[in-house]
Structure to design on (275 residues):
């Protein structure tokens, strides 16, 4: 509650700061244009300054031990500054899609970077809450061993069922269907997009299909096998969500570096030809 209250307190200040950060270069560029100056220089340098500020968010994460403010507040400022760069980019170029090959390459990278930032923000807002709701805590590096352990338990359960009941019905059904499910993470896209609804419907359908052919003793083993399948689906969701959040940075950070390099080169070229 304290964190939510802090975010609510800082939100008006962040919105006001973002509005002022756009209003100042807009008025400055208009004044510069009336004086027959070059408003693109004003908006360009202002845009570059905001982009440098955005890079400070990554430095903030690496210096988490220092009292530099709450991480959620920094994320809010980072998102606001990211939207501000889009507005400043349009103010600087005067259009949504500039002319010239170099400018279009820069614009394409800039839009891709912005889109990746929006996707990352959505994932940071949605996935941690969904992961917490599963009630399961799984370290990403331990997911393969977790799945192997669940598979071993499932196979041991099926083997015990065969020994105690003398029936191979559940064992044959496991080998034909559920063994595939327990081998490795499954339904990656479905877990990433809808929280694994298709995965849960699939293993429940497989379990319900064989239940009619089992006696009372075998059904107790099937119920325990279903619980293992539910746990496996939760681990699969952790794998999908954590994989996307980790790989997103492998896209967003290099894109940031590429855009910054092109922007610096753009500044160099502008000032060379201005001489």
């Amino acid at each position: 509650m304290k964190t939510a209250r802090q975010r609510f307190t800082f939100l008006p200040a962040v919105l006001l700061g973002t509005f002022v950060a756009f209003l100042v270069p807009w008025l400055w560029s208009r004044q510069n244009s009336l004086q027959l100056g070059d408003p693109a220089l004003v908006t360009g340098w202002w845009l570059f300054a905001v982009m440098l500020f955005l890079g400070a968010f990554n430095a903030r994460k690496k210096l988490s031990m220092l009292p530099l403010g709450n991480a959620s507040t920094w994320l809010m400022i980072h998102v606001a500054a990211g939207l501000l760069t889009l507005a400043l980019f349009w103010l600087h170029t005067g259009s949504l899609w500039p002319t010239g090959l170099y400018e279009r390459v820069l614009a394409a990278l800039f839009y891709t970077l912005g889109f990746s930032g929006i996707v990352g923000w959505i994932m940071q807002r949605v996935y941690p809450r969904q992961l917490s709701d599963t009630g399961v805590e799984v370290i990403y590096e331990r997911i393969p061993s977790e799945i192997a352990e669940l598979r071993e338990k499932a196979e041991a359960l099926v083997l015990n069922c065969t020994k105690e009941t003398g029936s191979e019905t559940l064992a044959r059904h496991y080998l034909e269907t559920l063994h595939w499910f327990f081998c490795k993470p499954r339904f990656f896209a479905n877990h990433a997009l809808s929280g694994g609804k298709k995965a849960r419907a699939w293993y429940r359908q497989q379990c319900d299909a064989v239940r009619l052919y089992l006696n009372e003793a075998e059904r107790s083993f099937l119920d325990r096998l279903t619980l293992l399948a539910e746990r496996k689906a939760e681990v699969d969701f952790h794998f999908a969500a954590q994989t996307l959040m980790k790989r997103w940075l492998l896209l967003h950070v290099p894109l940031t570096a590429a855009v910054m390099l092109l922007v610096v080169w753009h500044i160099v070229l502008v000032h060379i030809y201005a001489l």
